[in-house]
Design brief:
Blueprint lengths: L7 H19 L4 H10 L5 H16 L11 H15 L5
Length: 92
């Protein structure tokens, strides 16, 4: 049995329905939007730290983004292998 990706025109609405359903069930803003609202009201909860993690993670990854992104799957695999090799310990 092989698994294939769900088409975007199916996955997009399903994700939208899921998020709206969660929002209706929990009755709170979710994710980064909830963190922004908490930050604006000067409450520091988990969502605020999630938002700060997004911002700081994006800022930390910016210097690495100067190199051109991989253009194909094979190039992406090579790029990931080179990245892991340079950051890992000694070869066994």
């Amino acid at each position: 049995m092989t698994w294939e990706r769900c088409p975007w025109y199916v996955a997009g609405p399903l994700l939208g329905i899921l998020i709206v359903g969660l929002r209706a069930t929990v009755n709170k803003p979710l994710g980064a939007l909830g963190g922004y609202i908490d930050l604006a009201s000067q409450r520091f909860g988990f969502r605020t730290f999630l938002l700060l993690g997004f911002v700081l993670g994006g800022a930390a990854s910016q210097p690495r983004a100067e190199h051109s992104p991989p253009r194909s799957r094979m190039e992406a695999r090579r790029w990931a292998a080179r990245s892991l090799r340079c950051c890992s310990g000694p070869a066994r």
